[in-house]
Amino acid sequence: MSKVSEIASTFFAYLKRPDLYPELRRKIWKNIFNRSSGLRGKEEAEQWCKSIAISEKHFIEKVLNTTFIPFEKLFPQEFAGALQAQAKAPVKMGGAGSLSVIYYINEYANAQKSIETGVAYGWSSFAALASLVHRNGMLYSSDMPYILQNQSEDFVGCVIPEKYRSNWDLYRFADKESLPKIFEKASSFDVVHYDSDKTYDGRMWAYKLLWSKLRKGGVFMSDDVGDNAAFKDYCEQNNHQPHIIEFDGKFAGVIIKE
Ligand SMILES: C[S@@+](CC[C@H](N)C(=O)[O-])C[C@H]1O[C@@H](n2cnc3c(N)ncnc32)[C@H](O)[C@@H]1O
């Protein structure tokens, strides 16, 4: 697909979805006035991440003080079912980060209420819910559909085991619309996991808001923090001491709220 026809297809796909018009307006504005937000400060962010990164095992054992058993070994049957569900999905969506870190931060925080942005197949949701269901907790998720793939909405969260679904509340809008709706249901969270709009400005807007809803002692996680300098700048501006975890050649950032 050429760039022009991709832009035209995206535009017409948005026109069919009035609930996503606010996001369409923001995208047009961003493409005209603020195109560099995705990669702003990428080089310095990557260097910073590399200089302080630890492994997921190190983080789980030394920071969370718990024995590390990889997520897929803790839940082998559910994991095999999830792989099958993903293989059957006819659409390609964004991939998962460290499922073990997501599971163990929910365990660490004894989470009853967690919030995540960005679902796609639902790997991160699966990992959070595997912990939450033991306390009959709830996961609130925000996910804007992949606008160019007609069927993708039917497969958002497709890897989440059926038995976890009554503990899952999904909002299918852009974060700027989903988050206020979620906050009408719950105003404080034990865990935040950010994995949606990866632009510098999108992160800065959401980090500040989500941080304010995280309880003391709760855990804040953001994926792909080496993509631009938003997470680094956010930590420096607010004097947060983050843990940077390297996984699959990418970096996740975690802050435990003092
Ligand atoms: C990387 S995927 C999420 C992967 C998932 N967290 C996992 O670990 O399996 C990113 C998702 O965020 C969604 N997304 C992108 N921008 C968004 C926005 N502004 N608001 C809500 N969702 C958004 C995408 O449509 C996609 O489904």
UniProtKB/TrEMBL annotation:
<dbReference type="GO" id="GO:0032259">
    <property type="term" value="P:methylation"/>
</dbReference>
<dbReference type="InterPro" id="IPR029063">
    <property type="entry name" value="SAM-dependent_MTases_sf"/>
</dbReference>
<keyword id="KW-0489">Methyltransferase</keyword>
<keyword id="KW-0808">Transferase</keyword>
<dbReference type="Pfam" id="PF13578">
    <property type="entry name" value="Methyltransf_24"/>
</dbReference>
<protein>
    <submittedName>
        <fullName>Putative O-methyltransferase YrrM</fullName>
    </submittedName>
</protein>
<dbReference type="GO" id="GO:0008168">
    <property type="term" value="F:methyltransferase activity"/>
</dbReference>
